[in-house]
Amino acid sequence: AHILIEIEPAEEAQSLAKSKADSLFQLLISGADFDSLAMEFSEDRVSGAKGGLLGTTERGDLVPDFETVAYNLEEGEISEPIRTRFGYHIIRLNWRRGEKINTNHILVMLQATDSDEQRAVESARLLRDRILAGEDFESIARDESDDDETARVGGDLGWFDLETIPDQFQQVARTLEVGEVSEPFSSRVGVHLLTVTEHADEREVDLIEDWDRISKMALREKQDMEYANWLDEQREEVFIEIMME
C-alpha cells in the first residue's frame, strides 16, 4: 500500500501559469487561430511546432484529467484551461470515433522546484510520524493520499511481482518488513510512503483472479511511458535550442 503526495509548485507559480492560460483562452474565444497561438505560446515544444497537434489517442493514453475534458467536448469545441500534473491545457477536440479522439492543445507548464519537492517530502514525513505514533495507514491514505484511485481503498496497490514495478518502488519494497513504513521517497509523480502488508511465495499468474490488478498496472505503465517519452522529447528540444543559440 502507498500514500502519494504530489509535488505542488508554489502558489505564485500556479497563479502566473493560470493567468497566462486564461489570457490565451480569451484570445481564442475572440477569434484568434488556435494553431498559430499553439505554435507561438505552447510550452509543449513537440506538439507546439505542429500547431498543438497531439494526434489520435485512445482512452487511457493520456492523463485522466485531460481525457475527462477531451471526451466531453463537441467536435471543434475548445475547452477552458484545465489543470493536470503537467500544467494548464487548452484543448481542442478535432474529432472522435468511438474511444479514439484527435486533439490539439496549448500547454502552459508548471515547473516544480527543489523547494516544492522538499515541501512534499516534509508533508509525507509528518504523515509517517502519525502512522508510527499509532494512527492507521489505511485511514490516512484515504484522507491524505493524492492517488485518488488507491486512496479509496486505503492505498492498496494489490499483489504484484517486485520485478514488474518501477525501480524506485522495487528498491524500497525489498528493504521493508511486513507492516514497516518507508521513509518518503520520490518518483515521477510525487513523493510516496510505502508499506508492505503481506508477502507471498511466487505463484503462477491467474488471468481471472489477477486480471483487475494486471490491467491497472498495464495502464499505469503505459501512462508512465508516455510521460517519460514526453519528458525526453522536451529535454531534447531544450538541448537543441541551447546548442543553436
Distinctive features:
four-stranded antiparallel sheet; Chitinase A, domain 3; 9 helices; disordered C terminus; 245 residues; alpha+beta; elongated
Question: Rg from C-alpha positions?
Answer: 20 Å
Helix content: 40-55%
Task: Count every beta strand, where a strand is a DSSP E run of 2 or more residues.
Answer: 7
In what range is the share of β-strand residues? Answer: 15-25%
Largest sheet: 4 strands, antiparallel
Helices, by number, come to 9
Overall number of structural domains: 2
Which oligomerization state do the chains in this entry correspond to? single chain
User: How far from one another are the termini?
Assistant: 47 Å
State the secondary-structure class: alpha+beta
CATH architecture of the largest domain: Roll
What string, H for helix and E for strand, traces the elements in order? EHHHEHEEEHHHHEEH
CATH topology of the largest domain: Chitinase A, domain 3
**Arrangement of strands in the largest sheet:** 2-5-4-3
CATH C-level label of the largest domain: Alpha Beta
What is the mean pLDDT? 84
